[in-house]
Amino acid sequence: MQFSEYWLRQFVNPSLDADALGHALTMAGLEVEEQTFVAQPFNNVVVGEIISAEKHPDADRLQLCQVDVGEAEPLQIVCGAPNARVGLKAPCAKVGANLTDFKIKEAKVRGVKSFGMMCSAKELGLEEEADGLLEFPSDAVVGQDVREYLDLDDTLYTIKLTPNRADCLSILGIARDVMAITGAPIVLPQVTAANITTEQTHLVDVIEQEACPSYYGRVITGVNASASTPDWMIRAIERSGLRSISAIVDITNYVLLELGQPLHAFDLDKLNGKISVRFAKKGEQIKLLNDTEANLAEDDLVIADDSGPIALAGIMGGEPTSVNHQTTNIFLESAFFTPEVMAGKARRLGLSTDSSYRFERGVDYGNTKQAMERAAALILEICGGHAGSITEKVGRLPERKKVKLRYARIASVLGIQLSKDDVANILKQLGFSFDETEDGFVVQAPSYRFDIEREADLIEEVARLHGYDKIPAIAPVANVTMLPLPEAKRSLNWLKDSLLSKGYQEVITYSFVEESWERTLSDNQNPIMLKNPIASNLSVMRSSLWAGLLDVLTYNLNRKQERAMLFETGSTYHCNDNSYQETAKVAGLCYGTANPEQWSDAARDFDFYDMKAVVDTLTHQQATYKRDVHAALHPGQTARVYLNDIAIGWLGKLHPKYQQQYDLPKSTILFELNTELILQTKLASYTEVSKFLPVRRDIAIVVDETIEVQTIIDAVNAEKIPLLQKVQLFDIYQGKGIEEGKKSLAFLILMQDTNKTLIDSEAEAAIAKLLKLLENKFNAQLRN
Asked: What does pTM read for this prediction?
């Protein structure tokens, strides 16, 4: 919300300078994000009037002007502006004036003395470009300081409002808070009912009364839509970040900024039948003021006439019924649309308007009629015309429920004791009505404070009006003891440190993803849909972390980062039988060369086993892997990860079709694991270290190529053959000398005894048992 200090001080004028006022607003919870001057510093520039203009004797494009600046004698000024003419009033910088880039001195221009300079908006630092002199109206006072005439000593504030403080999306709302903060009196704009000088009205039918509890409409005939908007109104609008369009539109925008109530004016002669407030019908469309066609959904609230929708309620008007300079009769609308109905509608249609921004957060329903009267009075004053009586359609308006505020709870939350009178005075400053009770107050907030719903909201108001800086920082008093750390569980920080130590970088992505990602990449055909997504491509909750990681990878590749090692820890969300489950996961991604480019190593890309080593580290070398199929992973390079016979995640290479979809030149390796399960670990146990050397034997067996190596190793370990300490694969061979459909597996076998040195016969006996087991279970044959 951007606003002008001068405009605010017309409502409330505390004895604070601009900086102190900005600090007071920030300390009261209305954070001043930016504070700037309207114009750069300059001086000695006044309103001047050209009283004569003759051609320069030695230059075709220059004029020799006599300029009245309110002194005894006019100034002779050489001017080359194309719009310089007799009778023009414009800024005149006198000798000695300091402009933004230079100082004005007495000079000779082509042999003729010049005692000043006529100025454009660019030379005053008001605009970046200008085609000629800045022209003033004919009623501008000659000799008046331009800074004073244009209110250029004004300050612009931009406040960063939290979503619950939509009441401050207007000058009136901010003024109320300044009054409460400083105690300065507030002067409200005088709003008087317009004189009814025409009997003409227009029929209104509010079909959806829950969505539109109040609707006010008024016919104003005989208006001059091409009338000029007053300079004071243009300044107020433009200094609030809007642009001047036409008198009627400017007036509705002015009231929006002043009172916080959006309004809309229809060209009465373009309406076809009565006004209806209803939901859109299936297949309806509307052409909007921004020249776009909107396809309406059945939950879009519209203003319609007999021809169909003529405006998106609370968002934007339609082009066919818009006001233009030829308009003579208007139908002025002021309504209250509930935030629940408005939420997300503008965003779904790719729109963002000042009206929708306010209606989504809540507009003061007690101010709807007053805004209508205010706008009508301004239209009659500026554009003329005849006002008809107001058509009112008021249903069941929201209620501000009473909220209990307890002294004990204030002290508990804020840590300070406030007297009964102090709390009562704060509530009065805020304009809250209340009844006193034995332990506190029963408070009812006014209609514009729709954020007051519970006791915590009132305590926040008490804190900010009392002053956050007045709440002492008291160190807590507590018995500090060391908490027991479970030996069988590691921390999330350990998990992150493990990945960081391997060169991975942590990223944090949205928990919301695109629906198509969920249905394809995560193979989730029942994603959790968001009712009010922040963007159309973030419409469902993620069930996997991979989509976010791939999005970050694409972002980096587009910026010429050709190597990436990324990980993320976060929650994933699943819907099972209409129940929702949140699961903590860790996921990683590697892409590009396995090592940074260097002269001593040949470059190679990351492969499946690089990522498997990472997973082994995270699972304390206890994970097992089984071939499986996942929609996002390569059919031949995908493994399901198990820990203690429980499936905990996936490991594999990105499926080629998604590699193509993401436009990835190289393969991408991914993993995703259940965080809670991998942080569980077995307690350490003591095993005696043998003092005797181990005996190593290497064997090579031939088995069917369909048999997995892990299955063989698991079977050997389960048999618990005496003396056998380790079985490890070190070679696989298929080719010449090996029957088709078979493969040769070479294993390293380590045997050891903790009490003595093994002799050959004992080692051979253990090997014989091993070979017998392999033959019986896998039909393995010892390779010669």
From this structure: 0.67
